[in-house]
Write a structure and sequence with these properties.
Number of helices: 14
Strand content: 5-15%
Structural class: alpha/beta
CATH class of the largest domain: Alpha Beta
Helix content: 40-55%
Bound molecules: pyridoxal-5'-phosphate
Distance between the termini: 73 Å
CATH topology of the largest domain: Aspartate Aminotransferase, domain 2
Number of domains: 2
Order of helices and strands: HHEHHEHEHEEHEHEHEEHHHEHEEEH
CATH architecture of the largest domain: 3-Layer(aba) Sandwich
Largest sheet: 8 strands, mixed
Length: 397
Amino acid sequence: MNRRNDHPASPAPLRPAARRASSMPRSAIREIMAMAAGRPDVIHLEVGEPDFGTPGDITERAFEAVRAGATRYTPNAGMPRLRELVAGRVAARTGAAVTAAEIVITTGAIGALFTALNVVVDAGDEVLVPDPGWPNYESILHLAGATPLRYTMRPDNAFLPDLDEVERLIGPRTKAILLNSPGNPSGAVFPQAVMERFGTIARRHGVYLISDEIYEDIVFEGEPVSALSVAPADRVLLISGVSKSYAMTGWRLGWMVAPAQLAALGAGLQEPVTSCPAAPSQAAAMAALAGPQDEVFRFRDIFKRRRDIVEEVFRGTGLLPFVPRGAFYALIDIGRSGRDSLSFAKDLLIRDNVATVPGITFGPSCENFVRVAFTTEDRKLRTGLERLRDRLLASDG
Ligand code: PLP
């Protein structure tokens, strides 16, 4: 019988949507953003992207490239010239001999994380993830059917990992360790010794290091250390992109640096997902990487100035247990409020018109914190921070 013409009198109950999609954990930040969206005059300290526009010459060169024909599919791994530019940049920063064959251009750094994780994990594998850490790591693992195991980073240890704990968590099913420095949400920057120890662990246990270095250009003291400069290159997958350094979040352009064999697998994985990142965005990234870098330093200096404002507002209160050294976030201790982080953040929004991210978004270790992003102009930032401080100091706890 022809199945198309077989119309039963009443339709059978529809089969359910995919379990992996329906059970995907929703981030608490979405709840706050939805609440904040409907309110006038909110001071936004929840937004995780630079508040500047993309530098004009990058935008201009992207338009020129589009007019000249950058409107078509590109290879899965990205435009050859952009891969070369990324390889040159990474080699110069890390001292590693990186070639274009090791570069995959992706749709944002999140695309690179998705590709990297799916290149190394099978369903049932484990990956060590930072707590506190960016929640999207766990979402990708959820989609891959893999299991995240959290390693904690505590404020009394400057939000650095306890590497003995990291090592203890590694079991026969562990494939990779995810690390993020400069880190979201803490602003910690791992020193050389910590990065070297990750390298030693990778060597000893045969696991991959997936190193999310998207905030590499936003460092206020000293230099960040790349995993690729200290760990064996055959087990490092480095993630970065143009989003934060060049104020280009909306262009959705990132990259993965991986051993050539894994890079080739990663390029293949892009075919059924995005095929390739958008050609105009690749052209813009080329302009960003090949052009003058003054704006990157100017942005960094603005974030440093704002970091200093955060420090000044909270000085002597005990509410800022760690002064961020990179990225554009700080964790504020809300312990004295006696509230959980989601209800505290909701309350702060309703009473003081200040939007923050509840710490629980970043893992259970962060339940006594809210995250503030210094991605708002100085005066508003100061006002928002003062309201948060005063609300906490007025708490009974
Ligand atoms: N990694 C971390 C730690 C982030 O905080 C973010 C964005 O907030 C990303 C990766 C994603 O970057 P992109 O916008 O390039 O996908």
